[in-house]
């Protein structure tokens, strides 16, 4: 089945919460995966992959979009909002929050009632106040990626994701995908490394591992998953999985499979 790919950007500031078994996080040049849930703040015009990309199990998602001048006249001159102002100024990097911060913010987001605009505004201010003071945050990009992505990059990344999804369980060929995006193999390798900070081989392996997580949490064994995601050696799959995730497939399933 073809995955729905949506590589996009927009002028709004976006706060996204997604709750799923496991998924792919691609914001700017940062590509990684999450387990269980993810809470990410994304600045204006930062290209990112839809957070429900590739999810085949049930998931929940909350998305809050704000105009970039959100409360600008109130926040800018008011000392009490200095933390929120600083948070928004850093959002162009992509910020992923975890731990107690994520739990508390998600609880508040679930209570927001847009039928009561004033109360919703107060609740959102509380959300951003909590995020602005949190140390439980991962910065996804160290530089601004908002002005570095043109239309051809969107088309190329869509082609790359489609090709990898259709071939991840066999042998994705860098020469084939280079031809599909009208680049020589050497030029494609340079382009891909520049755009994602990883090699095409690393990208394919991370894609496979991300998909493997879902299969493991559905109760399949490491041996079954190994063949299903395209590896021919169980020992190599175990080593790669541990290198990417930090633990073996068996330990991962025991820790998160419930």
List keywords for this structure.
258 residues; single chain; Arc Repressor Mutant, subunit A; 11 helices; 2 domains; 7 strands; globular; two-stranded antiparallel ribbon; 48% helix; alpha+beta; five-stranded antiparallel beta sheet
Question: Would you write up a description of this structure?
Answer:
- This protein has 258 residues and is α+β, with helices and mostly antiparallel strands.
- It folds into two domains: 7-139, no CATH class; 151-256, Homeodomain-like (Arc Repressor Mutant, subunit A, Orthogonal Bundle).
- It is 48% helix and 17% strand.
- The protein contains eleven helices and seven strands.
- A hairpin with a 2-residue loop joins strand 2 and strand 3 (30-42).
- Helix 3 packs antiparallel against helix 4 (117-132) and helix 6 packs across helix 7.
- The chain starts with 6 loop residues before the first strand and ends with a helix.
- The relative contact order is 0.13.
- The mean pLDDT is 87.
Task: Describe the SSE topology.
Elements: E1 7-8, E2 13-27, E3 30-42, E4 48-49, E5 60-66, H1 72-75, H2 82-90, E6 95-97, H3 99-111, H4 117-132, E7 137-139, H5 151-167, H6 174-180, H7 185-196, H8 200-217, H9 222-228, H10 234-245, H11 249-256
Antiparallel strand pairs: 1-4, 2-3, 2-5, 3-6, 6-7
Helix pairs in contact: 2-4, 3-4, 6-7
The Cα radius of gyration reads: 20 Å
What portion of the residues fall into strands of 2 or more residues? Answer: 15-25%
What summary fits the major beta sheet? 5 strands, antiparallel
Specify the structural class: alpha+beta
The percent range for helix content is 40-55%
Shape: globular
């Amino acid at each position: 089945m073809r995955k729905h790919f949506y590589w996009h950007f927009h002028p709004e500031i976006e706060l996204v919460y997604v709750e799923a078994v496991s998924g792919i996080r691609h914001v700017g040049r940062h590509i990684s995966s999450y387990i269980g849930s993810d809470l990410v703040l994304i600045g204006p015009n930062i290209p990112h992959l839809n957070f429900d990309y590739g999810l085949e199990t049930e998931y929940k998602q909350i998305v809050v979009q704000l105009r970039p001048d959100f409360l600008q006249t109130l926040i800018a001159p008011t000392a009490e909002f200095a933390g929120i102002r600083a948070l928004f100024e850093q959002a162009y990097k992509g910020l992923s929050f975890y731990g107690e911060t994520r739990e508390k913010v998600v609880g508040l987001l679930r209570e927001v009632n847009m039928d009561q605009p004033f109360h919703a505004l107060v609740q959102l201010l509380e959300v951003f106040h909590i995020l602005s003071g949190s140390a439980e945050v991962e910065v996804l990009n160290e530089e601004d990626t908002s002005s570095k992505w043109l239309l051809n990059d969107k088309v190329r990344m869509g082609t790359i994701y489609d090709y990898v999804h259709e071939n991840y369980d066999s042998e994705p060929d860098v020469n084939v995908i280079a031809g599909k995006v009208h680049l020589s193999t050497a030029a494609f390798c340079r382009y891909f490394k520049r755009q994602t900070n990883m090699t095409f081989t690393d990208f394919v392996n991370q894609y496979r591992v991300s998909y493997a997580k879902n299969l493991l949490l559905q109760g399949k064994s490491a041996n079954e998953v190994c063949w299903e995601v395209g590896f021919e050696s169980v020992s190599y799959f175990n080593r790669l999985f541990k290198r990417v995730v930090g633990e073996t497939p068996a330990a991962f399933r025991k820790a998160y499979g419930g």
